[in-house]
Amino acid sequence: MKPLVILNPSSQGGRTGKHAEDIALVIERYLGPIELVRTNAPRHAIELARSATVEGREKLVVVGGDGTVHEVVNGVMSAGVDADARPTLGIVGQGTGGDFRKTLGIEHHLEKYCLAMASKRHRRVDVGRMSYRDRSGETTEGYFINILSAGMGGLVDEYVAASEKRFGGTAAYFSASFRALLNNEVGMLRVTLDPGTSEERTVELPTRLIAICNGRFFGGGMEVAPMAEPDDGWLEIVSLGSAPKFRFAVSTLAIYRGTHVNSPDVSVHRARRVVVNLSNEEVRDRFPLDIDGEPLGTLPLDVEVVPNAISFCVP
């Protein structure tokens, strides 16, 4: 079967849709004949990827942002097939952040994405399986591929989603981050860390942001988890702490270099399963979830790693 290209025409402010045929022609030069399908609504890519996985497609190409990659991963993982029967995923980044492709080492250029897909080099990576409270208050299950955070990161997502992004992704994230800094609150978290042995432990973490990381980057290039490897079977948990807002803002500038982990305000943990509960309910609306760049719900949260779940094309 031909590779299926799942293209989000709304990504990059609608520019992806306008150039869909041109993008498809370039992909075909590297992969040969393809089948192109456009998403037409939020969560549509989940259905398309699930159907493609069930019918036995060997390769899916995601043209869109981290949110579209997130949806395709959820479709593949929810198809109910064994890991070896899941399609290999290729990425053509067309979104605001493009954070997961940075962890995979793919340069942001159409030809580079296509070269990675044509190289036949694959990297089998882990996936996070999660249970959380959705916006309607119902318990929801799903998957994430890059980073799930709670607190300020979720506020940034909400503000980015509502922005016009006229000046590009970096500007959108910078503006949203400044607004989120003004409006965020400290969450009193009770976090249970399970390393997969009898050494399970629970810690109390007052923090403005906690990130559960499979990949390294979020928020348009912030290297929140420089130690993360998406194929090592572990989740890295990074709490940015509860410093006053000005000190928090100054110290987190180092997140773009990944050196924030050296700050005494920051704590780092690792686990194979993480359970997070919020003690101070009054800040719940200021402590939303950021799931692969999407504002999808809130705490409580239960996450576990699914090792060696999906293969990605890499350079």
Q: What is the C-alpha radius of gyration, as a whole number of Å?
A: 19 Å
Strand content: 25-35%
Question: Uncertain spans, ≥5 residues at pLDDT below 50?
Answer: none
CATH topology of the largest domain: Tumour Suppressor Smad4
How many domain modules? Answer: 2
Q: How much helix, percentage-wise, in residues?
A: 25-40%
| First-last Cα distance | 23 Å
Can you list the strand order of the major beta sheet? 6-5-15-13-8-9
The sequence of SSEs as H and E is: EHHEHEHEHHEEEHHEEEEHEEEE
CATH architecture of the largest domain: Sandwich
Overall shape: globular
Largest sheet descriptor: 6 strands, antiparallel
- So how many helices? 9
| Mean pLDDT value | 93
- Helix/strand-derived category reads alpha+beta
Describe this structure in words.
β5 (122-134) and β6 form a beta hairpin. This protein is α+β, with helices and mostly antiparallel strands and 315 residues long. The protein has a 6-stranded antiparallel sheet with strand order 6-5-15-13-8-9. A 5-stranded antiparallel sheet has the order 12-11-10-7-14. It is 28% helix and 32% strand.
What is the fold's blueprint, element by element?
Layout (H helix, E strand, L loop, with lengths): L3 E4 L7 H4 L1 H12 L3 E4 L5 H11 L4 E6 L1 H12 L10 E6 L5 H6 L5 H9 L3 E13 L4 E6 L2 E5 H11 L6 H15 L3 E8 L6 E7 L1 E5 L21 E5 L5 H8 L14 E5 L1 E6 L10 E3 L5 E17 L2
Quick recap of the structure?
With 315 residues, the protein is of the alpha+beta class. Helices cover 28% and strands 32% of the residues.
